[in-house]
Amino acid sequence: MIPAPYLLYLGRSNDAVGIKTSRGLAEFRPDDCVGEFRHDDGPLTLGLPRLTMAEGAAAGAKTLVLGIANSGGKMGADLIADAVAALEAGMNVAAGLHQRLRDVPEIASLAEERGLSLFDVRDPPANLPVGNGNPRAGHRLLTVGTDCSVGKMYTTIALTRAIQARGIPADFRATGQTGILIAGDGVPVDAVVADFISGAIEQLAPARNDNGWDVIEGQGSLFHPSFAGVSTGLLHGAQAEALVMCHDPMREHMRGIPGRALPDLAECLEHNLRVARLTSPDVRAVGICLNTSAMDRDDARKLCDTIAEQLGLPCTDPIAFGTDTIVDALLAG
């Protein structure tokens, strides 16, 4: 486990989506977050106390969480310098980037010198199996999306909590850096060798016989040219009996690919169902979840109602309006 409390890193990021890991920790583990670190020219904030590295350590932070994501997952010079500063202040450092902390000489040597720990969240487990697609017991739900970073993790956690509130066992199965930091375990599926993705998810959500649910965090999108492979492996390994589609109605194009439009919701949903049927022939869609955080609340509600009527499925924003309608549909099936 990564020692808490945390100082959350924003750096100089101007990408509101790119700070989703820090934002997720602030949202779902607020008691473990003492503040945020950002430079003077960093325009974003989580509304937490702004602290220097020394102030964060003095406030009790045991770990600086480099809670940002960027294309390719590389560490720039600023981020490396800030990680070094955190170590000099006496904090451990955790990151979910593809470039490992331990592979940066100045970070690794200083951590060893100071007796501090480095946590690379995107390290997949060793000895993952190859998936086989054989039927296994248990109820599983997988969130899927029209794009990456549209709210799949938020939806998955919200659904898990809503199922638990009904007195039914449910477990959030994390597959990305933010979810793993929140849950304390999981599989960073985008760091798994392609041949082992479905097997990793079979291992993450094995057979269960307690009538409970594994609620599995989706990644990427079947319609995103960069990440469709990960999405496919998740669909096959999850062997889900239920899918929930996530979508950001304010997104102007696929993330990172200007000019490429997001898919039609109905088309995207049917494509995901078709791929999922390879290992779960009776899979069904049980709802649509929108990220309407940038919309007027009344407009958001009207959009949810319109989409629900068009697709014949419950549609909600899990944060603004809850997930009861989707859980009703899930449990009624």
Automatic annotation (TrEMBL):
InterPro entries: DgcN-like, DgcN-like_C, DgcN-like_N, P-loop_NTPase. NCBIfam families: DgcN. Residues 47-124 form the D-glutamate N-acetyltransferase-like N-terminal domain. Gene3D superfamilies: NAD(P)-binding Rossmann-like Domain, P-loop containing nucleotide triphosphate hydrolases. Residues 130-327 form the D-glutamate N-acetyltransferase-like C-terminal domain. It comes from the Bacteria. This is DUF1611 domain-containing protein.
